[in-house]
């Protein structure tokens, strides 16, 4: 396990694609426990916290700068 996030670039996609990409990355990288999601869909501000809650992941950080969102998620046991 590592605290260095794996980056999932979902820029240019819209709901539900960013969360699908994040989930796929988590399945492909079971040894990683921290993921950074990049997205420019403003709905990620609502969708990512809800997705984390539903799947038991910890939303460490979510912020927006110049229309680009970055969310940091600590993976739970399952997705």
Q: Measured on Cα atoms, how large is the radius of gyration?
A: 11 Å
Inertia-based shape: globular
Indicate the CATH class. Alpha Beta
CATH H level, superfamily name: TusA-like domain
On the 0-100 scale, what is the average pLDDT? 92
In which order are the strands of the major sheet placed?
1-2-4-3
Pattern of helices and strands: EHEHEE
Describe the overall structure:
By secondary structure, this protein is an alpha+beta fold. The chain has a single domain, classed as TusA-like domain (Translation Initiation Factor IF3, 2-Layer Sandwich). The chain is built from two helices and four strands. A four-stranded mixed sheet has the order 1-2-4-3, covered by helices on one side. The longest helix is centred in the N-terminal third of the chain and has 12 residues. The chain is globular and about 30 Å long. 25% of the residues are buried. The model has no long low-confidence stretch (mean pLDDT 92).
């Amino acid at each position: 396990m590592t605290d260095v996030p794996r980056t999932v670039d979902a820029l240019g996609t819209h709901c539900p694609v960013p969360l699908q990409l994040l989930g796929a990355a988590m399945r492909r990288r079971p040894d990683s426990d921290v993921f950074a999601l990049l997205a420019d869909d403003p709905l990620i501000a609502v969708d990512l916290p809800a997705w984390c809650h539903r799947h038991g992941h910890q939303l460490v950080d979510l912020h927006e700068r110049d229309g680009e969102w970055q969310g940091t998620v600590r993976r739970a046991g399952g997705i």
